[in-house]
Each structure stands twice: as structure tokens, then as C-alpha cells.
Amino acid sequence: MTNQEKKKWLRRYIDLNGAINQKILELDAVRSLCEKVTPSYSGMPQQPGSDTKDNSYLRLVTMSQKIDAEIDRYVDMRAEIQAAINTVDDIQLRTLLSLRYISGLTWEKIAVEMNYACSWIRKLHGNALS
């Protein structure tokens, strides 16, 4: 795997955070629909073929389970990236990779955080990828 491919693979962590947050919003919307109370008038005729509340609730629960499964898959993918970073023996290089790909910091912020010049951080980054 080239360094470019490694960087692209590591950058997925931040993208996965966004995807997880989006799925959480979807899950909240589904739960909100499940909890929504609408008036029911007894004795009122229903349209033929209309779903009962139970069927609607079951569909919403199924949707919720699918979203939960997707979130779990994204979390597993993030864990895989974190595990790969944790295999780097040098604590300095591991810290650099975590700051860049897990925390999403810029080179300048990483340099300040680690008390190095930005050019040195970029050189260390190349070593970390290798």
C-alpha cells in the first residue's frame, strides 16, 4: 500500500464520524416518529388497507434496527483504524497519527501540540506512515 493509499484509508475515520452522526440524527427522527402521539377517534371508519398502529410501530422498529446496525458497522470500521494506529511502536509517531487522523488537527496545530516545527511534523508523518 502506498503512502497516499494509507492516508486515504486513515482519513476515513473523520468521514465515519460524520456518517455516524448522520445516522444518529436519522435514529432520533425514527424514535421521534415512534413516540409521536396522534389522536384516535373510536368508531371512526378507517380507509381500506390502512396500516394499524402496531404495523407502523413495527416498521419503525425495523428501521431503527437497520440504522443501529449501520452505526455498529461504522464504529467497527473506526476501531479498525484506531487499532492500526495503535500498532505503531513509537509513541511520538502514534501520537502524531492520532492527532491527525483521529482528532483531525491541522499540521500547524499538531506542531504546536507536540512542540515541533511544522516541517519536522511532516517529516515525522512520512516516517509514521512507513
Helix content: over 70%
Spans where pLDDT lies below 50 across 5 or more residues: none
Number of strands: 0
The amount of beta strand, in percent, is: under 5%
Largest sheet: none
Structural class: mainly alpha
Overall domain count: 2
H/E element sequence = HHHHH
Mean pLDDT: 86
Shape: elongated
What Rg do the Cα atoms give?
23 Å
Our count of helices gives 5
Ends: how far apart?
10 Å
Plain-language structure description:
The protein is built from 5 helices and no strands. It has helices spanning 3-35, 53-86, 91-102, 107-114, 118-129. The N and C termini lie close together (10 Å). The protein is an all-alpha fold and 130 residues long. The longest helix is centred in the middle third of the chain and has 34 residues, at 53-86. It is 76% helix and 0% strand. It folds into 2 domains: 1-38 and 54-87; 89-130.
Looking at this protein, list some descriptive labels.
mainly alpha; 2 domains; 5 helices
List the helices and strands and how they pair.
Elements: H1 3-35, H2 53-86, H3 91-102, H4 107-114, H5 118-129
Compose a concise summary of this entry.
With 130 residues, the protein is mainly alpha-helical. Helices cover 76% and strands 0% of the residues. The chain folds into two domains: 72 residues; 42 residues.
